[in-house]
Amino acid sequence: MTSYFAQLTTEMNNPATASIDECDTREMLLLMNEEDQRVPLAVRQEIDAIVQAVDLLAHSLQNEGRMFYVGAGSSGRLGVLDASECPPTYGTDPDLVQAYIAGGDIALRTAVEGFEDDPESGARLIREKGIGAGDVVVGITASGSTPFVLGAIRQAKENGAATVGVVTNKNSRLSELCDICIAPVVGPEVISGSTRLKSGTAQKLVLNMLTTGVMIKLGKVYNNLMVDLKASNSKLYDRSIRIVREVTGVSWKQAAEALNKAGMHVKTAILMLEIGVDVGEAAELLERHKGRLKAAIRNGKGRLEAGNGNGEDGGSGDGAISKGE
Predict the structure, then answer these.
(1) Is the pTM of this model over 0.90?
(2) Per-domain boundaries in the chain
(3) Residue 157 and residue 81 in contact, taking contact as beta carbons nearer than 8 Å
(4) DSSP 222
(5) Catalytic residue among 85, 246, 257, 284, which?
């Protein structure tokens, strides 16, 4: 009888690398590079499924839902990596996008035996986190058969949550469970079964698309700028100033002054400069437009023009600043 794993393309032998152990270093690396070029093309084939997943996630997060990654080993680590970047990049609450790996945080550094083969551990995680209707659980597993992930997905569905699968094999067990399955088939690995290679790269590209697409749809991006970033270190402080300058065209000093008045909130600083309003008015505009900076600027400028047409001053607050200051 053929085992489930023997049928997976990621477990098959790659004829292109059959003699990689006899290659010199250059030949070895060129072979790896050639195989890696298959990955973005495989991901492209799954764009329609990724579109569905992004729209599902955006709808959930716009309506007080949460996003959860669950995975084991390399797949779990990639989920943690992606989720952990959302707060500094997009200013999200850490609870909005979460990630969990079989075996807990210690498994980020070392292999923890037994947990990935335990479906009850995955199910228990879903129950403990109170995951249910309105939330979305994204299961990541190259084989599509990791028991921890399958257990989590089954429990999530039972609790009423939506589910997305990210796998690198077709016709997987996970695909039979999930509402949406994203399955870029990257072919046999350079080293047979080493799914941290092409499979891991494909998973990373997909996760990039999921969170980036969702955050754009949530209004966290203006043009292609991360206007909701948190300036938690010197690099991000510098970037915040540069973003304000790029949008408004003001000097470094003016951008820094506006940011300080706005409590380091980039969107607020931009509105203050673009429209000439104070912090409170800028915050009110952002709230009215659900954090969407472009809509807030358009509305604010429209109000300003209407006010000027009536001989009124559009920016009424004492703390209002403008580009001309």
Answers:
(1) yes
(2) 5-217, 234-309
(3) no
(4) B
(5) 85
